[in-house]
Hints:
This protein is mostly helical. It is built from 7 helices and no strands. Helix 1 (2-8) crosses helix 2.
Amino acid sequence: CDPWLKKSHPDLHAKLKAVRDDDGNKGGEGDKDEAAQKKAAKPDAPWTTEERLTKFYEKYCADKISDVPSLLEKYAGKEDKLFIALVKKYGPEPEDPYYMDSEDEDDEDDDELAEGMENLEVGKKRRGVKAKKTIKFETRV
């Protein structure tokens, strides 16, 4: 992205580089360090329902963050229905960093899943008029 921006839009690239330097990041090197620290620092526990809802609204509708406590009261015991409705309305829920696995573990799980899928046989279901097998009887005497 950076080489393309530098080649296609040199003036914009210079402005962005100046802004990055003002923030203390030199040429994007600080971004890599921050990303590595975030990835390495795995939280001790998963998000609470309040944190999940807050993160959801931070991602999709920041205006409603103040409504989180009242929504939790309203949907007490029915939080799963609340999140299902929110996902239908806004989109997928933000991922909890507690449940994020490393890339190596994901590959092993995918391999096991692929092996299991090879053995799975799915039969075709017939649909339409010919799906019902009817036997015609001779009704004449």
